[in-house]
Amino acid sequence: MIVLMKPSCSQDQIDHVIELLDEMGCDHCVINGSKQQVVEVLGARDRLDRRRLESAPMVERVLDKSAPTLAADRQPGDRTREIPLGASATIGGAKIALIAGPCAVETESQIMEIAAAVKEAGGVGLRGGAFKPRTSPYSFQGLGEGGLELLALAREKTGLAIVTEVMCCEDVELVARFADVLQVGSRSMHSSPLLTAVGRQSKPVLLKRGWCASLMELLNAAEYIIKAGNPDVIFCERGIRTFETFTRNTLSLSVVPELKRISTLPVVVDPSHGTGRRDLVAPMSNAAVACGADGLLIEVHRDPDIAWSDGDQSLHLDQFRTLAAALRPFVAAAGREV
Ligand code: PEP
Ligand code: MN
After folding, report:
1. Mean model confidence pLDDT for the chain
2. Cα 301 to middle of ligand 2, angstroms
3. Which end of the chain has fewer CB atoms < 10 Å from its terminal CB, N or C?
4. Distance between CA atoms of 303 and 284, rounded to whole angstroms?
5. What average pLDDT values come out for the chain (338 residues) when binned by 10 residues?
6. Which ligand is nearest to the CA of 297?
7. How far does the centroid of ligand 2 lie from the alpha carbon of residue 292, in Å?
8. How many whole angstroms separate alpha carbon 247 and alpha carbon 333?
9. Which 3-state string (H, E, C) describes 97-157?
10. Is the dihedral of CA 60, 63, 68, 72 positive or negative?
11. φ and ψ at 147, to 5 degrees?
């Protein structure tokens, strides 16, 4: 464990931390960093009273060296962090947040019709990419700023919170001007400059797990965002790549209870990218809620057969309505609300 002191702490305050550690029977060693002083606690983790140390003057944080503890910060009795989704909803409280919409914003009538259906079915967020990370450079790359304007129009009409992806540092300011939640996609989860850039602005961040990223790598990605100053991170499990071929990805639902055990940050599941198959989206949504997810991120389209991207995994609007209604017993069984 390490005790990170605030940058302008005095020698007396470091001595006080050392006294506390002596009282707890913990060995220690002071490291004089160029920007911050650190007191390293040697062994005896079980004797360390973390809360007591954290309430000492000028202690910034007590960190577990082997784990990114800004993101993995849950202590017994802690509640999940409730993060705003726009002006009138939150995620992480009692209510399960349904966020749905097309893979990509295509046209005004497309996004408006879908937004109205999402709202009517009980959704609180509208997802949709204006900047699309595509495998092929010849595929549709998104409408860019025009797409963001259409999303803002949909918010105006429906009140839904806008969740949309930002792919590079240069676009963070632009996307943050339109979005209620900035999505960092699976491909970008490893981009530490982007993570730092979204951490320096104040809108919540939906952080998708990289398809080859371990849980620890996901936690460390969140760590970049939080360390840069933004504590409002929402984890998103969207499936990982395995040897299995019957689904696009393997939806790794066991990370949901594990993340909930170690972190106070809310967790969303994306069963659309997680399976790549429309018929599997509803059962995996039920399972996600049953194992503790705080929300769902689902692709829906008014006409999936002609969607410009990810049509195979997008639900028809009536299927989304059915999913939302069928989810209710699972929500109730999990002790949550819709
Ligand atoms: C998306 O949400 O449309 C998307 C591109 O997701 P991912 O980054 O998980 O592939
Ligand atoms: Mn998609």
Report:
1. 95
2. 11
3. C
4. 22
5. 90 96 93 84 82 92 77 88 97 98 98 98 98 95 98 98 98 98 98 98 98 96 95 98 98 98 97 98 98 98 98 98 98 96
6. 1
7. 23
8. 27
9. EEEEECCECCCHHHHHHHHHHHHHCCCCEEECECCCCCCCCCCCCCCCHHHHHHHHHHHHH
10. negative
11. -65, -40
Report the nearest atom of ligand 1 relative to the CA of 133: 5
Nearest to 227 by CA among 63, 8, 11: 63
The ligand minimizing its distance to the Cα of 304 is 2
CA 318 to chain centre: 27
* Tens-place pLDDT, residues 73-119: 887 789 999 999 999 999 999 999 999 999 999 999 999 999 999 99
Ligand 1 proximity of 190 Cβ (cutoff 6 Å): no
Query: How many other β-carbons are positioned within 10 Å of the β-carbon of residue 94?
Result: 13
Cβ 102 vs Cβ 114: under 8 Å: yes
Cα–Cα nearest to 186, from 244, 239, 127: 239
| Contact of 39 with 2, CB cutoff 8 Å | yes
Predicted confidence at residue 192, as pLDDT, reads: 97
Q: How far apart are CA 100 and CA 167, in angstroms?
A: 20
* Ligand 1 nearest-atom number relative to CA 310: 3
Alpha helices in the chain (DSSP H): 11-24, 50-54, 108-120, 145-158, 172-178, 192-199, 215-227, 255-262, 271-275, 278-290, 317-326, 328-333
Q: How far is the CA of 302 from the centre of ligand 2 (A)?
A: 15
Place of tokens 């790794």: 252
How far is Cα 68 from Cα 49, in angstroms, rounded to an integer?
18
User: CA 158, 274, 266, 324: dihedral to nearest 10 degrees?
Assistant: 40
Measured from the Cα of 104, ligand 1's closest atom is 3
